[in-house]
Amino acid sequence: MYKYHNLNPISQVGLDEFTKDYAPVSTPETADAILVRSAAMHEMEFAPDLKAIARAGAGVNNIPLEKCAEQGIVVFNTPGANANGVKELVIAGMLLASRDIIGGINWVEENEEDGNIAKDAEKAKKAFAGQELEGKKLGVIGLGAIGVLVANAATHLGMDVYGYDPYVSVDSAWRLSRSIHHTTNVDEIYENCDYITVHVPALDSTKGMIGKDALGLMKEGVIVLNFARDVLVDSEAMVDALVAGKVKHYVTDFPTPEIAGVKGAIVIPHLGASTEESEDNCAKMAVKEVMDYLENGNIKHS
Ligand code: MLT
């Protein structure tokens, strides 16, 4: 009988995939595998019997990879399993930054008691006018599972899409719409795009990539979106760019205290993958990987 510990509850739909050879344990000490969503595991001590950690999500920055490697613990993630959920929120983020939906809703809530919202709607229409996505240039930095979906969806909205990724996989290249301009020069995206969205992992080489230099190259009034990892954007430089009006909106899926409340910032509490479908897909993939490893020694994404 294999034992698993569900550290930071992943979807029950995924757990239901475990066969009768698996049993849950309430503490990690006796587990063969730990399942985790985004709880930070850096301070945890791992028992000698622990063989695998499966992260129901793409990023593994909540897991101490070096410690796992030293102790021979295999770490799995679920790339692509929540990509559609994130893609949909990125598109929503572009719309929130383009149309003052939040301002309009707040206006209705603030004024509904006066009973004049229908009569005053003409004024609101002017106050909350926005811009359309069609015809605007979108730069997608990182063409992995999520970047490709965002790029393709944006073409269907009539956007002129530029994609940057020095390491496009064959799989991504096949899935990428042929109308997307692929560039190997990221400055081309910074200099020309009206909307810029980042979809790269947090690595030493990508941390702070959207900093003073990159922001300096961007167009006045650019809209920047970050649904990948907060550390990709230098918060101090972004606050300066928002205050100066260089960046019209920064839409981030990370509740970064320095950014929240700054004019033009649209801060979401990490909801990209928070859909029933994404959570189920990630959990199912994580469980499948754990079983394949414990039973067959396979280390691969299915
Ligand atoms: C991911 O890395 O895929 C997301 O952070 C998932 C999540 O929100 O748990």
TrEMBL record:
Keyword Oxidoreductase: yes
Keywords linked to the UniProt accession: NAD, Oxidoreductase
EC annotation from Swiss-Prot or TrEMBL: 1.1.1.399, 1.1.1.95
Catalytic activity: (2R)-3-phosphoglycerate + NAD(+) = 3-phosphooxypyruvate + NADH + H(+); (R)-2-hydroxyglutarate + NAD(+) = 2-oxoglutarate + NADH + H(+)
Transmembrane segment boundaries: none
Its biological purpose: Catalyzes the reversible oxidation of 3-phospho-D-glycerate to 3-phosphonooxypyruvate, the first step of the phosphorylated L-serine biosynthesis pathway. Also catalyzes the reversible oxidation of 2-hydroxyglutarate to 2-oxoglutarate.
Stated name of the protein: D-3-phosphoglycerate dehydrogenase
Sequence similarity: Belongs to the D-isomer specific 2-hydroxyacid dehydrogenase family.
Top enzyme class: oxidoreductase
Pathway as given in its UniProt record: Amino-acid biosynthesis; L-serine biosynthesis; L-serine from 3-phospho-D-glycerate: step 1/3
